Amino acid sequence: MPLPDTSTLALYMIAALVLLLTPGPAVLYIVARSIDQGRLAGVVSALGIGVGSLFHITAAAVGISAVLAASALAFSAVKYLGAAYLVFLGIRRLFFETTDTGAQAAPQPRRLSQVFVHGVVVNVLNPKTALFFFAFLPQFIDPARGPAAVQIFLLGAIFVAMAICSDSTYALFSGTIGNWLRNSQTFLRGQKYVTGSLYVALGIGAAVTGPTHR
């Protein structure tokens, strides 16, 4: 069975859901687009970002599979380096990043086809997304359950489906309440601390309890 066992899959989905519900750059982009052009444009942006994520998941599947084929030790190294990277992201977010209010400026109006393509391109060209998937997905891979690439594709597909649902909810919500979300300093400051804490907790938890190479 290429998917992890039930408890690991449940842990994965809970971790993914918590991360997805925490506003990050993609959510803020979708919020801005939805406020500027309406809820439909926000949902289309969410679909584009989801498709862009598939590119990074494919790259992670190929890269992690190659590492796993090389040696078990190398796979374990990638796993723990990934956990350390998540902790690093959290610490940097908490202590070294300032709120970038300019990032929430509304994008210029575009046709829906352009909105979709722009969402794809924005995510494909974001190296942080690639690093995130390379750090996050190995924590839930068990080589004893089948090819790592298949597990990564399945877990990645689950993540993208959840992300599209979550991001679309943000699009619908932000399109309804208007400019308040984009202009709220409380919203912007709060998401920084919540996101940073979650990254640190996820990295530590994955290193301590995540599945290991058998």
Structure write-up:
The structure is a single chain. By secondary structure, this protein is mainly α. It has one domain (6-209). Helices cover 78% and strands 0% of the residues. The chain has helices at 6-21, 25-37, 39-70, 72-95, 112-124, 127-136, 148-177, 180-183, 185-209. The longest helix has 32 residues, at 39-70. Mean pLDDT is 76; it is low at 101-107 and 210-214.
SSE layout and pairing:
Blueprint: H1 6-21, H2 25-37, H3 39-70, H4 72-95, H5 112-124, H6 127-136, H7 148-177, H8 180-183, H9 185-209
Quick gist of this model?
This protein is 78% helix and 0% strand.
Low-confidence stretches: 101-107, 210-214
The residue fraction in helices comes out at over 70%
Structural class: mainly alpha
Task: Return the string of H and E elements.
Answer: HHHHHHHHH
What does the main sheet amount to?
none
Average pLDDT, rounded to a whole number, is: 76
Q: What's the shape?
A: globular
Q: Count the beta strands.
A: 0
β-strand amount: under 5%
Instruction: Give me the number of helical elements.
Output: 9
Termini separation comes to 15 Å
Number of domains: 1
Q: Nearest-angstrom radius of gyration?
A: 17 Å
List keywords for this structure.
disordered C terminus; mainly alpha; 0% strand; 214 residues; single chain; 9 helices
